[in-house]
Amino acid sequence: MRRSSDLTPEIAEEAAWWRDAVFYQVYVRSFADSDGDGVGDLEGIRSRLGYLELLGVDALWLTPFYRSPMADHGYDVADPRDVDPLFGDLAAFDRLVADAHEHNIRVTVDLVPNHSSDLHEWFQEALQAGPGSMERSRYIFREGRGFDGSQPPNNWVSVFGGPAWTRVPDGQWYLHLFAPEQPDLNWEHPEVRADLEHTLRFWLDRGVDGFRIDVAHGMAKPEGLPDMEIRVQAPGVLSDDAHDPRFDNDGVHEIHRMIRKVMDGYPGTMAVGEIWVKDDERFAAYVRPDELHLGFNFRLVEAAFDADAVRGAIEHSLAAVALSGTPAAWTLSNHDVVRHVTRYGGGELGEQRARAMALVELALPGVIYLYNGEELGLPNVELPDWALQDPTWERSGHTERGRDGCRVPIPWEGTTPPFGFSTGANTWLPQPNEWGHLTAEAQLEDPGSMLSLYREALEHRKSHASFAGTELEWYGAPAGCFAFRRKGGGLICALNTSGASVPLPPGQVLLSSGPMDGEQLPPDTAVWLV
What we know:
By secondary structure, this protein is of the alpha/beta class. It is 26% helix and 15% strand. The two termini are 46 Å apart.
């Protein structure tokens, strides 16, 4: 198997390639289906590499494709060193990596170190072995509270709803911060650490260029597992609460140092963590020189379409990474949040604002993570109850609809479902009938489409001299607006979230998110000037 050091010169030119790369998140189930079963797979991704090269991305992030019973669509991993037959096999993975490298696209894959599937051989052994056994010590089993042990060991709640503990027939309870099918691993156990190192090397030796680490702030648990403060709506992984004992415990940094030590033996590889931590100093600790290369800062995801809110998100994100000297990693959407076209108002308004925010994000120094379909302007989909599959739907007693709406399969071509996603008639989540105008085919030759905007913006970002420089300088701007300049390159990005047109900053228009109003910047519009 080839390592990063064996890649073609075009994609092995510099160890820190990731510092200004554009990554494209592929939600594997929803990207492209090669065998007609309605579920995306590795060969489907390989068949669309030409599109990704045309789009102009530098690297892929593949969501889990490992062996799994799919209780959480792959984030419940039964074997982290094999491909689930639903998605292909190891030979298909090797072909995908080789072909992606031929297209000058690097490949990074998801790691899920906080928990395993309940069908993982370790957990099955733990259930058979009983209390006090070595097998149980790989997970977090505890005696219950109350005179008969019938109450959970503490009051922790699951991110997906309900208690974070499940009782087994012999009376003990096991911890699962997510679904009961996802028991948390005990990271104080040396075999758990050794197994992750084995997994890292397994995929690095197959040529992967890096990892995205799921719930990177969640593996270490506090001593004694103290009760948490229960709110009206209990805080989950997508919120930041300094008093939540489930996440952001100091012991997690030793785990990331172990990961970094392995990766340093594979020059040119990188790791990015999913880190829901807002405190700048706490966040910076994850991206110290001996820990993760990058950390997702989700402030842009959480910011409303408002100039002050967006500027605050940018400034806080830059301040956090300035403490460690690593680049910021920007994103507007992913597989866990409502797509930003919908967050910004939906319909034509949401599309207009999403176009503007795409230019804001792509003007920023650092690393960009795009979510598959955002370049097509896909909205969230209001799915019927019968179609919902996210475990949150059942765990919440049908009060939280979950994340399925942002995971609907990609429309590629044609005028009716499945829009070229599959050769079969059905897809694992139903596509809206009215998506014909959003297909890649429909947008490819339309200069005014969302896809054309992304292609042009990515080309400028990669080749235009004005994108040099890693620092921002802010201009004075009317209320509801902002403008910043990339120091060292000169690119100016201006955003208008007010209700009226405002004068443009000085400069020549390089690209705008929508039609201009003479020398005025219209509402809900962004522009690049040089």
